[in-house]
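Translate sequence into structure tokens.
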Amino acid sequence: MATTRLSDIIDVTVFRDLPPVDGPEKTAFFESGIVTRNALLDELAGAAGKTAELPFWKDLDGSSEVNYSDDDPSNTATPEKLVQGEQVARKAFVNKGWQAADLASELALGARAMDRIRGRTDAYFRKQWQRRLIATTNGLIADNVANDGGDMVVDVASESISGQDAGTRFNRDAFVEANFTMGDAQGELSAMAVHSAVYAQMVKNDDVEFIPDSQGNLTIPTYLGIRVIVDDGMPAETGDTDGIKYTSALFGAGAFGYGEGNPEVPVEVERYADQGNGGGIETLWVRNTWLLHPFGYQAVGTPSNGLTFTQSELEAAGTIDRVIDRKLVPMAFLVTN
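Result follows.
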């Protein structure tokens, strides 16, 4: 009796060309404009090398006073120059494999393997992509506290349960303080990512309003006009004693840039005829190359494997470093109970 295997079901060429069922573009981070994808970042992600250089022109120095005209021919003005800076982004080369035995396929009932595999691999990589985004956000906070005096962070949380009150929990005053760490650029913040425990406090405060989605349904939560993204991957850490401290992140449009590269073999089916005591085992491998980078930063650390930062490495203070003025980075962080 012939056995239908993954290599019989999956046309690798078709698999590559199918549109994502649940890729990163489906997440609230993309929909809110926090993460933007463009052709340049796709090109950089697909180019040779493990890093991408993103040069940019720094702004004109607004603190330098103007020249005052006069009629003295010997009094000459000295022009100033425009300076270029550089952001260095590191690519992420990621993959995952799923293995199935021929016998299991023979005994299984239900949906076609191709449909099931296609749907779930996209969902898996979407979750991994989002975890890397949140891990990078945690790294930005760690870098800011360690190297920039915490000028992007407002922390009102108590280290203990006994010290908690309305002022240490999420509240409007603390939110405004975090917003205004950007000074007169605070109006650029347009979305906020919070833990569900913080979102519950916002609901209790009766401060959440809903706006219509593309279908006209009132399903998008907002706080003072800022979109709210609820994700339990946001930091929730125990304080010095027994209090839990939650970090919420405020973002402006384009806080992160994103591009996708082109792995040499994005999808591959590997067959082991002798495994399963001769019953046959097959493995499906899926590979991605991502360029996910926060605006205004550069990668300064070195991955332990020499190529790609792990999630724990992304969260460390020495992985990325801010290279532009604080006001130009559309992010702020609020720590509450």
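Note: The chain has nine helices and 17 strands.
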